[in-house]
UniProtKB/TrEMBL annotation:
InterPro entries in UniProt: SRAP, SRAP-like
Keywords, alphabetical: Covalent protein-DNA linkage, DNA damage, DNA-binding, Hydrolase, Lyase, Protease
Top-level lineage group: Bacteria
SUPFAM superfamilies (alphabetical): BB1717-like (SSF143081)
EC number: 3.4.-.-
One Pfam family matching this protein: SRAP
Similarity section: Belongs to the SOS response-associated peptidase family.
Protein name in UniProt: Abasic site processing protein
Length: 224
């Protein structure tokens, strides 16, 4: 699972990297985000209704109504921040978004924890000429509608798709890692058919990744 990542990419750099026009950049003077958690806001690149790309902040995790097991009363909604690659075409929570609302989730590193009390946090980044080259997760978005404590609520949300862990992530998290897309695949992910997009859901090459930061209590990648 991926429950924590960072995005320290300047907004203007994101706009250029992901081919978003100036007037479709809705981030404003966005600050670096060295730690993004579920239910927090994160930058997303998606297709607008007119077919043009836009860059805007959405809330991480599809929301669904959640009730207390003890009382049956409505409590804080569940946030589904990860979607398994083997479920995106069959699960009712993911299927429509996979077919119609795929997006790019810009990032500069992601974190996986090992052990408990205390846990050791490992931050993974891509290799490159700069310290943390920007990249994008394969994501999906939706307008989540659910029951809150005060009645019906809705919020625009995104989720990150995960796949089998590669050799560098596996010692820390043996099962899953987020899908990282290569720049040449962005257009196919955003505009391709469901079959074409599904073909991109695979582990990233471990030789092109490294652990950029690790330690107990390191719940930020340290770069702001």
């Amino acid at each position: 699972m991926c429950n924590l990542y960072s995005n320290t990419i300047p907004a203007e750099a994101m706009r250029r990297l992901f081919d978003v026009s100036v007037e479709r950049n809705y981030l404003g003077n966005a600050e670096p985000l060295p730690a993004i958690f579920p239910k927090h806001m994160g930058p997303v690149v998606r297709m607008a209704e007119d077919g043009r790309r836009e860059l805007l902040p959405l809330s991480w995790g599809f929301r669904t109504t959640k009730k207390s097991k003890k009382t049956g009363s409505i409590i804080q909604p569940a946030a589904w921040n990860n979607a398994r690659d083997d479920k995106v075409r069959s699960s009712g929570l993911w299927k429509e978004s996979f077919e119609r609302r795929r997006c790019l989730v810009p990032a500069s590193s992601f974190c996986e924890a090992k052990g408990r009390n205390p846990a050791t946090y490992f931050w993974f980044a891509l290799k490159g000429d700069e310290g943390r080259p920007p990249f994008a997760f394969a994501g999906m978005w939706q307008t989540s509608r659910y029951q809150g404590r005060e009645g019906p609520e809705e919020v625009e949300t995104f989720t990150v798709i995960t796949t089998t862990a590669n050799e560098i992530v596996k010692p820390i998290h043996p099962d899953r890692m987020p899908v990282i897309l290569k720049p040449d695949d962005y257009e196919q992910w955003m505009d391709g058919s469901a079959d074409e997009a599904f073909g991109l859901l695979r582990p990233y090459n471990s030789d092109d990744m490294y652990v950029v930061r690790s330690g107990e209590g390191e719940r930020s990648d340290g770069k702001a």
